[in-house]
Every structure is written in structure tokens, then in C-alpha cells.
């Protein structure tokens, strides 16, 4: 007796696995979020306490709220590590390694990369998306960061499966 009943079970199993893996990258190919700074949110690490311009090796973290179309949808936590500082007069650009984890409905998205920033200047940076969890477990892509105001930043995510 042949086991033909295995064929529909195998097909159903493969379809379920395909649907489950596809759902991780379903949804928008792009996602636009507004990051809003929370009061007293910058937390220095080590001996850096914001009492001087940052130098190489200084670090701090921030935790901000994320909004989509006016509704709060999550948070972002960002570690800033200064590779080069601004110098004593904030006269030049600093190079910073950013590690950002976005906590959004359905999972998290991790972006990491280097960027050059100027003191008190608008940020226009692009970072690779290097991983995620939940529905974003296999997502890659990029995130464009644009300063809107002193405490608001626009995050445009281009998500690739």
C-alpha cells in the first residue's frame, strides 16, 4: 500500500512554513515614524556627564517615543559611541557609532552604523538595518534619519525581505 496521504500533508506543511516565513516581511515596504525625545532622557555612560564636549570613547543612551500618524506605536533606544569628538569649541564634525533598536508592533528592528554629526546641527543620516525580531526577524534595508526640530526626528525605513 502506497502512502499517498503523505503528499497532502507535505504540501500543507510546506504551505504553512512558507506562509509563516512570508509573514515576517509582509506589511509595508516602507515605514515612516516620528521619534519624539522624552524629557531628561539622555543617560551618559562612564565618566561622560554632558559637562564638556564629547571626546573619543564617550557614550550615552537615549530612549524616545515612536509615533506613526499621530499615534504612539513604540519606542527606540539608541547607544551613541563617539569615535571622534567635536573638540573643545564644537567647531567640527564628530563621528559617532549609532546602535538603535526600534520596539514596534510585531517585533523589533535593529539599525547600526557610523554617522557624522555637527553640534546643534540637523542630522541627515542613513544606516543599514541589520536585523530584527518577530515579524522583522529576516528584514534588512535602511533607515534614513532626518532632524525635524530639537526633539523630533523623522525615521524613514525601507524594509527589504
Summarize, please:
The chain is mainly beta. Helix content is 11%, strand content 52%.
Please report the number of helical segments. Answer: 1
Task: Please name the CATH architecture.
Answer: Beta Barrel
Residues in helix, %: 10-25%
Distance between the termini: 43 Å
* Assembly context of the chains: single chain
Strand content: over 45%
Report the sheet with the most strands, covering strand number, pairing sense and barrel closure. 8 strands, antiparallel, barrel
Give the number of domains.
1
pLDDT below 50 for ≥5 consecutive residues: which ranges? 1-26
Strand order of the largest sheet: 1-3-4-5-6-7-8-9
The CATH class assignment is Mainly Beta
Mean pLDDT: 81
Description:
The chain is mainly beta and 161 residues long. The protein has a single domain (28-160), classed as Beta Barrel (AOC barrel-like). 11% of the residues lie in helices and 52% in strands. It contains one helix and nine strands. An eight-stranded antiparallel beta barrel has the order 1-3-4-5-6-7-8-9. Strand 5 (94-104) and strand 6 form a beta hairpin.
Which features would summarize this protein structure in a list?
161 residues, mainly beta, AOC barrel-like, 8-stranded antiparallel β-barrel, 52% strand
Topology, pairings included?
Blueprint: H1 6-23, E1 30-36, E2 43-45, E3 59-68, E4 71-82, E5 94-104, E6 107-117, E7 124-134, E8 140-149, E9 152-160
Antiparallel strand pairs: 1-3, 1-9, 2-3, 3-4, 4-5, 5-6, 6-7, 7-8, 8-9
Amino acid at each position: 500500500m502506497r502512502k499517498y496521504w503523505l503528499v497532502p500533508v507535505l504540501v500543507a506543511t510546506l504551505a504553512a512554513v512558507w506562509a509563516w516565513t512570508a509573514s515576517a516581511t509582509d506589511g509595508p515596504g516602507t515605514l515612516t515614524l516620528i521619534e519624539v525625545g522624552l524629557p531628561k532622557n539622555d543617560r551618559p555612560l562612564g565618566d561622560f556627564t554632558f559637562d564638556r564636549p564629547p571626546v573619543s570613547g564617550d557614550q550615552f543612551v537615549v530612549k524616545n517615543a515612536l509615533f506613526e500618524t499621530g499615534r504612539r506605536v513604540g519606542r527606540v533606544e539608541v547607544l551613541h559611541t563617539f569615535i571622534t569628538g567635536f573638540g573643545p569649541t564644537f567647531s567640527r564634525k564628530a563621528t559617532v557609532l549609532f546602535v538603535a533598536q526600534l520596539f514596534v508592533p510585531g517585533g523589533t528592528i535593529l539599525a547600526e552604523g557610523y554617522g557624522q554629526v555637527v553640534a546643534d546641527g540637523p542630522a541627515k543620516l542613513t544606516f543599514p538595518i541589520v536585523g530584527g525580531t518577530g515579524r522583522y526577524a529576516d528584514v534588512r534595508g535602511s533607515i534614513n534619519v532626518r532632524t525635524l526640530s530639537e526633539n523630533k526626528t523623522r525615521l524613514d525605513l525601507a524594509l527589504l525581505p
